[in-house]
Amino acid sequence: MQNDRSCISERYLWHEEVNKYLAGLAQSYGNKIEIFSRAISYEGREIQTVRISPDIQRKREKRLCVLIDAGIHAREWITVSVALYVIQQLVERDAINSRLLRNFDWIILPLLNPDGYEYSREHNKMWRKTRRPLGANRCVGVDCNRNFNVSWGIGTSRFCSLLYRGERPFSEQETQNLRNIFQRLRPNCRFYLSLHSYAKAILYPRAYSRTLPHNWKHQHDVAQAGADAIFRMCGLKYRCGSASSFLKISVGGSSIDYAHDIEKVPFALVMEIASKGFHPAEQNIARICEESWTGIKAMVMQLAVSPIVSFTRSKTAC
Description:
Elements: H1 6-9, H2 15-28, E1 33-40, E2 46-52, E3 64-69, H3 77-92, E4 104-109, H4 114-122, E5 133-134, E6 139-140, H5 173-185, E7 189-198, E8 201-204, H6 216-234, E9 239-242, H7 243-247, H8 255-262, E10 267-274, H9 285-304
């Protein structure tokens, strides 16, 4: 597969193609990108996470990190495309985007839930969950974004539903993988961004409560910077606010609440990518990727000037 822009912005890639694309980048641009971690899904698919840095070979300590994931919900195909586009921009257009690598390494997990994604592509476009069987009554799958150990069980959905939380926190190999990445990045992760679709919103904690985190104004500023940049670019309006106020209900077990409350990541946001449905027509992928990238860039630039983000050198590397 060619490592060109078209392969990620003109069609949806299969899981195997995603990994081949990442491997190709790591081979061609080994000074900028490496496979940061590998994990295995329930059905045995390799889940790859990459690290992008100005100089991979020089294992620099004290680098702060941005962590992005996508594909946590199987049917949200467009999020995988956006994550791959972000990787492509940082690696292949690093001269243009050098400012974004000045203060942060980027850790990107472009397909968190490959089993569900492949099932959604092949069998049921609206499938949301993992694919682990649940007991003997033919129920399958857990909603990864209800499976983290933060206020787990609030807003619980019934067994077998599309929003099922699982039997316990981190019951899924896929959420365990993200937990392990967070733990590996301690204490240097300053910004966690989870890509979802398609509500045209940028949301911050908390999802399980209307009580806002102490730094909510700073998180709102970061979210608003992304929304403003997208509006200036194309006139598209994104809403910004806390997840619980946006959803109108409280739900536990979300990845942003876990990142913020448990892993102490100061900025933890969801970007609900604007698109017509979870898997918009392929001719629209390039436009949506470019719009989303504009917002992501603006958020990271705003993050760099936030009084909460300290660039004091820490003792561990990403």
